[in-house]
Known about the structure:
The protein is of the alpha+beta class. The chain contains 16 helices and eleven strands. The strands form two sheets. It has a six-stranded mixed beta sheet, sandwiched between helices. The protein has a five-stranded mixed beta sheet with strand order 7-11-8-10-9, with helices on both faces. Strand 9 and strand 10 form a beta hairpin. The longest helix is centred in the middle third of the chain and has 18 residues, at about 160-180. The two termini are about 25 Å apart. Mean pLDDT is about 90; it is low at about 1-35. Keywords: Signal. It comes from Hymenobacter duratus. This is Insulinase family protein.
Amino acid sequence: MKHSLQRLLLATCLLAPPLAQAQNPAGPSAPEAPAARPVAPAPAFPYPIQQKQLANGLNVVTVPFDSPGLASFFLVVRAGSRDEVEPGHTGFAHFFEHVMFRGTDKYSKEKYNDVLKSIGASANANTSLDRTVYHMTGNATMLEKMFEVEADRFQYLKYPEHEFKAEAGAVKGEYTKNSASLYTQLNEKVADAAFDKHTYEHTTMGFFKDVVDMPNQYQYSLTFFDRFYRPEYTTLLVVGDVKAEEVNKLADKYFASWKRGSYKPAIQPEPAQTAPRYVHIQNANFPPMVSLSYKGPAFSDQSKDLPALDVLTTMLFAENSPLYQQLVVKEQKVRFVGGSPNMTRDPYLTSIRASVVKAEDMPYVKEQITKALEDLKSKPIDAKRLADTKSALKYGFLMSLDSPDQIANSLAEFIWLTGNPESLNRYYALYDQVTPADIQAVAKKYFVPEGLTVGTIGPGATGGVQ
Length: 466
C-alpha cells in the first residue's frame, strides 16, 4: 500500500500564498477605509466539480475537462478489505475486482469486451484497503454506451458456481505469484502484527487460508455482492469532454432503478498499542531491509495531522536531506530510504523503509532513522525550507492533472475516503496552515516506541534491531 508518485505529489501540495493585508492609502489622519474582506484561497483542484445525488443514494460527479473526444468513466465503490469483517472471508473485495468482468445475461464477458473495442475504450479495476475502483477511458461521443454496460453489470452481474470457482482459482494464483516477493510477505507480517482487532490486520489480498478456501464460498460471494454493490456505496465519476446535464440525464436513465441496500459493516476499532512489536523474515539471498511502521491518523479534512506528516516525511527523506545524505551518499550503508503516511478511512500506519547494504548495519540504520525522528521533536525545521517544499510539490500536483483519467484518479481517492470529492479542496487548504510547530507536534504524537511495529529481512534468525 505504498503511495504512487502522483499520490505523494497530491498529498504534499501547497495552496494559495498568504493573503495580502489591506492598506490605508489615505494615511493616519484620514478616516480608515472599511477593512477589506479576506479573500479565500483558490481551491487546490483547478476544475469545477459538479455533483448530483440520485434518490437511491448514488452520487454522480461530473468534471468537464478540455479533452476533445475523450472521457473517463469511474465507479468508486467504498468497499475494500477493511469491510471484510467475518472471520474466514477475507479477500472478497479483491475477488470482485476480477469477477465483475464475468458478464451478465445481456452482456457476456465476450460481448462486453466487444463493446469496449467498438467505443475505443480500455477498462480495468483495482482494490485497496478502503475501496474498489472500476474505470474506463474512451470515446466521449459513446458515453451512453459506457453508462449502459456499466449499469448492467453493477446491477445484474451473473456468474454460475463453476465460473466462480475458476475465478477463485485465478485469485489464488495471483496471491501465490505476489507472495513470492519478500516485500509482499513483509507487508503481510507487519499488518498482522500491528493490528489485533481492526480489519486492516489483513492485506487486500486476504489471509492465505481464506484464499485457499475461497472456491468453497460461492454463497458468501453472492452475499458480499448484495451488501456492497449498492448505490449508497458507489459514486459515479465522469471526467472529460462532457457536460453535467448529459451525465446526470444518463445517470437517471441507467442507474435510478438500482435498489438501495441496508447493510453496514461492524468494524472493530483497534485498541491502543502499548509496546513495540517485531516481525522478521530470514533470507540470506535478499537485500537486508528495515521497516518502521508507526500507528498514524485516519484521514480527516479537518485536522492538520496528516498534512503535517506528509510534509515531514517528504522533507526527512528528500535526496538533499541530512539523513539521506548521511546514509545513502556519504556512508553508503543504505541503497534507499523513504517513507510516508497512508490516507485511510481509519487509523493505519506511517511506514518507513530502508534497504541496507550490509546486514550488520541494520541496527545502526534503525538507530539513525529514529534519531532523526527524535530530532524533529525538539528542533524546529527551517520555515523557508518548509515553504519551499510545499511550493515545489504544489506544482508537481498541478502538472499531474493533465488527462481525464489522472484527474479522475485524484478525485477518486477523496471519494473513497469521505464520499465527497470536495474533501480534496478542504484537505489541501490545511497544508497552507502547517507550521514548524505542527511538524514538531505530529513527530511527538505519532513517532513513539509504543506505536511502532518493526519489520526486518536479513540472513539471521532475528533482525537484531530490538
